[in-house]
Amino acid sequence: MATVGPEPPDLAIYPPGVRKGYPPPMADDENHHQGAHHDLRKRWLTTLLRARDTDACVYDPYRFADSLLARWAEPQRRYHTVDHLTAVLDHIDVLEDHADDPELVRLAAWFHDAVYAPDRSENEERSARLAERALAEAGLPAGRTAEVARLVRLTVTHDPAEGDRNGEVLCDADLAILAAAPDAYAAYAAAVREEYAFVPDEAFRTGRAAVLRQLLGLPHLFRTPHGAAEWETAARENLMTELALLDA
User: Fold this and answer.
1) How crowded is the C-beta side of 139, counted as CA atoms within 13 Å?
2) How far apart are CA 53 and CA 106, in angstroms?
3) Which of 7, 29, 106, 229 is the most core-located residue (most Cβ within 10 A)?
4) pLDDT score at 30
């Protein structure tokens, strides 16, 4: 069996600068975010304890939330930020009755963009591997950990199999931004462009247009009943508007 060297920094459970058991420092100009940060930590704890389905103690469960929140606040992010994590969790709350296990879907949301580098293509795989290690350490049973990792990997395609109710909820929640009000959608598109600032304009326009055409070519953007009824039409209108701007 081949030996494996140290994990690269973006696969460590605790990202650079975050000591085990301690939350990341908050700058003075970020104090207004502390309320949201506190709320997310509480949501993490509730989800983790429900997903574990055991009374056994877990040492300092907040350290996982603090590590993940530090990742979601990394400076290279413009769209894939704590705000996006919060929005996905909020959308899962709306869709949870459709899921077979909404707590596992919520855990997958926490990890689905935990490793994010715009210039790399293996973010989802690295995020899934991070989930496998962190959730095992947090005491989640192996089968449930595997389901979370499977869901994270599903966000590569956002194409859940028929009957994959957990996958349908996660993918719909992740794509719900496509159905946002026009000004919010425009802000999302601008943030995505900022994340890919290293890509020349013409190459970005070509690549982005191809993504939009691929999405518009799908028979359904959303798989849950709520997503199909409430988000499909608005999402297609936003995608067509952005595509027209790119092609102008």
Assistant:
1) 16
2) 15
3) 106
4) 56
Q: What is the pLDDT of residue 35?
A: 82
Long-range contact pairs involving 210-213 (C-beta distance under 8 Å, separation at least 24): 212/239, 212/242, 212/243, 212/246, 213/243
What is the per-residue pLDDT across 24-53, written as a single tens digit (0 to 9) for each? 444 555 554 678 899 999 999 999 999 997
* The Cα angle at residue 61 between residues 122 and 50, in degrees rounded to 5: 90
* Rounded-to-5 percentages of helix, strand, coil across the chain: 65, 0, 35
Q: How far apart are CA 9 and CA 14, in angstroms?
A: 9
Q: If residue 135 lies in a helix (H) or strand (E), which one and from where to where?
A: helix 123-137
What's the pTM? 0.87
15-32: per-residue pLDDT in tens?
444 434 434 444 555 554
DSSP state of 197: T
